[in-house]
Amino acid sequence: MTRSSNQRKLTLIPIHFPIVRTGENLSQVICDRLADEDIRLQRGDLLAVASKIVSTCEGRVVRLNDLPVTARGKRLAHKWGIEPRLCAAVIKEADQILGGVKGFLLTVKDGVLTPNAGVDLKNSPPGHVTPWPVNPDRSARQLRLNLERRYHKRIGVEIVDSHVTALRLGTVGLAIGVSGFVPVQDRRGVRDIFGRSIRVTQSNVADDLAAAAHLLMGESAERVGAVLIRGGTTRFHGVGNARIVQLKRKRCLIASNLRERDI
Q1: What does the H/E/C string look like for 92-113?
Q2: Could you tell me which of 211, 206, 147, 209 has the C-alpha nearest to residue 181?
C-alpha cells in the first residue's frame, strides 16, 4: 500500500528544564531553554508544555497548610482515604465530584473527567500542590503570541497534563489548553479503505499529540518540561482552543452513563 500524499514524518524533540520557580516569566523560561538546547523554531512547529511549568510560572502552587478543611472535606477524605488538606484542594478546584476510589476523587474540571481535578502532589514542592492553570486556553494563547512575536514564526501551543482512561491502567497525555491549531480532525465523509463513507469519526489531534509528548515528559524526575512537535498533518488556525474537543455530558458515551450521586 502506498503512503498517502498528505502524511508527513512526525518528529518529537524533548526540551529539558531546571526547576522552575514560582512567578518566573513563562515565555522567557521557554526561550532560554530553546536557546540552551540550540533549538530553532520553524513555521508549523507545535510546542507542548507541561501544565506544571505553566502553573508554577503563574503562581498556582498552593501550600496545603493554608487550606481550611470543611466538614464535607473531612467526610470525603475519610471515605476515600485521602489526606484531608489534599482533599480540600481537590474540592476547591473541582467543578463537580462524581465519586472516587481509594486515594482519588473522580471529578469534572474544565469539562474534563479527571482524577482529583488535576491537583497533584507529584513534582510540587514539599507541602504544596500544583493545580491546573486558571485558564489553560488563555495561557496557551498568550505563550503562542509571545513566541510568535519573538521568533516571527507561526506555531501552535498546547498545555499538557496526564489523566486516566476508563478501565485502562496508567496515565496518558491530555491537552488541557490549545492555541493556534485545529484540535479536531473531522473524518466524516471521507472514504475508508473499502470505499465506505465514514459517518461519525473525528480524530482528537490535540490529545493524540499530547499523548506523544507525555511519553517523553514522563511522570517523575525526567525534567522534560516541553516537547517540540514537528511535522504531521496539523492544521494551524488562530482560533483553535481546547473547548472545541469538549462534549456535553448527554453526548458522552461514558459520562452520560455515570450515575449522579450526592457526595
Answers
A1: HHCCEEEEEECCEEEEEECCEE
A2: 206
Fold of 10-60+132-257: 60s Ribosomal Protein L30; Chain: A; (3.30.1330)
CA distance 75 to 6: 54
- Residue spans of the domains in the chain: they are 10-60+132-257
* pLDDT tens digits for range 132-179: 999 999 999 999 999 999 999 999 999 999 999 989 999 999 999 999
First to last CA, the chain: 54
Q: Which distant-in-sequence residues (6+ apart) come within 8 Å of 248 by Cβ?
A: none
Model confidence pTM above 0.85 = yes
Rg (the chain; Cα; Å): 19
Residue carrying C-alpha cell 493554608: 66
* Cβ neighbours of residue 141 closer than 8 Å, sequence gap 6 or more: 157, 179, 180, 241
The model's pLDDT over 71-129, given as tens digits with 9 standing for 90+, comes to 999 999 999 999 999 999 999 999 999 999 999 999 999 999 999 999 989 999 999 99
